[in-house]
Design a protein that fits this description.
There is one protein chain. By secondary structure, the protein is mainly beta. Helix content is 5%, strand content 51%. The protein contains one helix and ten strands.
Length: 111
C-alpha cells in the first residue's frame, strides 16, 4: 500500500470476538487532492454558506505494479472507473476503542 492521505490508516480485525489491530499504514508524505471551487450561497442562521464544485484530481502518481493506493473517499470517487488501483477506508466499518477514539476500519472500499 501507498497511503496518499495525510494521516495513518489503521486496519482492524475481529479475532475470537476481540478487536485487534491488523496493520497501520503510515502516510507516504504524498497527498493527493481534488481541486475545488466555491461560490457564495447565502447565509444560514448567520453562518455564510458556499456551493462547491469539484474538479480534477491533483498529485496522483502513475500506476506501479503491485501498489494499491489509499486515498480519501472524495479522491477515490473522482477516479472511479479510471483507476482500479485506488481504495479508501470504509468508514462504515469503523471500530472505536473504549476511549471512543477511532481504532481502525475493518474494510477498504474499491471503486
Amino acid at each position: 500500500f501507498e497511503n496518499l492521505t495525510p494521516h495513518a490508516i489503521d486496519i482492524a480485525e475481529i479475532v475470537d470476538g476481540q478487536l485487534k489491530k491488523k496493520m497501520v499504514i503510515p502516510p507516504s508524505n504524498k497527498v493527493i487532492r481534488v481541486q475545488a471551487t466555491t461560490t457564495p450561497a447565502g447565509v444560514i442562521d448567520g453562518i455564510p454558506a458556499v456551493r462547491i464544485k469539484y474538479g480534477e484530481v491533483v498529485g496522483m502518481p502513475a500506476r506501479q505494479a503491485g501498489v494499491t493506493y489509499i486515498a480519501s473517499m472524495l479522491v477515490a470517487e473522482a477516479l472511479q472507473g479510471k483507476r482500479d488501483d485506488i481504495v479508501s477506508p470504509d468508514m462504515g466499518t469503523a471500530q472505536y476503542g473504549p476511549d471512543k477514539k477511532l481504532f481502525g476500519v475493518l474494510k477498504l472500499i474499491r471503486y
